Fold this protein.
Amino acid sequence: MSPTGKGTTGKGTTGKGTTGKGTTGKGTTGKGTTGKGTTGKKPGGTKKPGGTKKPGGTKKPAGIKKLADADHASAAAAKRRSLPPVLSKAPPVAIVIFGASGDLSARKILPALARLADRGVLDDGFTVIGVARTEWTDDEFRAHVAEATPDGGPKWKALTGRFRYVTGEYDHPDTFARLKDLLDEADRVDSTGGNRLYYLATIPSVFGLVAGALATHGCTTPASDDQFIRLVVEKPFGRDLDSANELNDKIHAAFDERQVYRIDHYMGKETVQNVLALRFANAVFEPIWNRRYVEQVQVTVAESLGVEHRGGFYETAGALRDIVQNHVMQVLALTLMESPTSTEADRIRDEKVKLLQAISIPTPDEAVDRSVRGQYAAGTIDGADVPGYRHEEDVAPDSQTETYLALRLSVDNWRWAGVPVYVRTGKRMPARVTEVVLTFRQVPYLLFDHRTSRDLRPNSLILRIQPDEGITLEFGAKVPGEKFHVRSVAMGFSYDKAFAGAEAADGYERLLHDAMVGDATLFIRSDEVQQAWRIVDPYLKAWSEAGSALQSYPAGTWGPHMADLLVERSGDAWRNPELDLELDSEDLADFVQ
């Protein structure tokens, strides 16, 4: 749910058909129930025999219970139907995908658009124009779209028949002459209304080139105030602070900042967005969301997969650039920032930038002391043997690229001063999981001795971002039985269970929709990008020196031993996500009394 609440228009209210009350708007009417005000009368006004009573003690027929159960099920279904639509209707637009023949377009962008179409989110005045170097005809591009979206429904298939394709270099005049002709045609034939959304799904090195070419050929300025032109830029946005600043300069020479939407699909996940609701809609959490009550913060982004067929890309990126500079910094900013003054996009982004500016930037020597780099060796995942990183496809046999990274950060402001923030990410770890854990301080005096409280851990609040999105609160409870034994238990909220039957939009669906409607809340502003690079740049410089340590860890483990020592130096320990599963699955009756 976007903080701005755009597009959640209801369709009337659902009546309470199971209690005999009428309905308003477009609600559902109860079946077999009598409307309000007709009590004591049969249909048509016939009176019941006066004073007639049911025989005392007579049981209701079995069919009554079935009807009651059916009414409850109907009410539950009505409640689900009464939920507002997840996304509002997008305006007419022509989306131009640069790099349309590539992997990102096929895996993420086109399937997301197909789901939006079949939900009725896309306007009738919608089309896609693909641009790439691959020599395709319009029909070949449409066939590629069909192959990438096998689950697309009739609404999507009706739209794809109008999709067009341009073959050419990303800065050649002929490419843009053809593109402009097709955009004009889309306005006339498909009623796209002069609105343009340019999506840069190319390799990062040509982001600036495409932006400059769009400006050179007059494709960046709307024809009127009623139209819009926007640019969506994929990550990574630069390789370091200098290259990010250079790319910003190139893009700003072609587009205003308000036209630029830097995308990070993590920001489209429900739990990431729900951090705002958890913190600022609940009085029970906000008073304890600070250094007085929180002892430490941990962020874990773990993947069980290796680099798969992306070895060539990963050799140029590594865990710091691929995950920490963007995903982790964005999640941290939302988790630790101060309350914005409103839900307007720039008010939220202002507070995110302030938080990033409060993160201490180390010297290169301090960066070495506060970080651990690792690279996975051969090991076992889910019972299967997997190779080490250096034996993956397109990876150098002596590669020094990190597949694991642990950092100890500090936030220098009144709310978080003195609270260590631990960050780790890695590939080939035991499970795929992303979570943020706030561990609270111990009670000042524990009444119970070690024997009766040996299974009691500090209270924790866990924000699960993937795979099963939700929130868990851990606290102590007495185990049933004669003896007094206290242990940690978990109270959980799951999106799938709490909002069963509700529509769900994945990260790309949500962010593509927001780019079309002009909601920039979940996109990254240029000053956010710059500050995130300022934080991680010292680590890049420290690791570029000869002899920088790279620790090895077996695939299927939670990382190198040195990462444990990084945390233990402060008297803390990593919280492995599998502990959450233990709390949910253990039977309290199994504990010895």
Remarks:
- The radius of gyration is 28 Å.
- The CA atoms of residues 139 and 164 lie 8 Å apart.
- Confidence is low (pLDDT under 50) at residues 1-67, 74-84, 583-593.
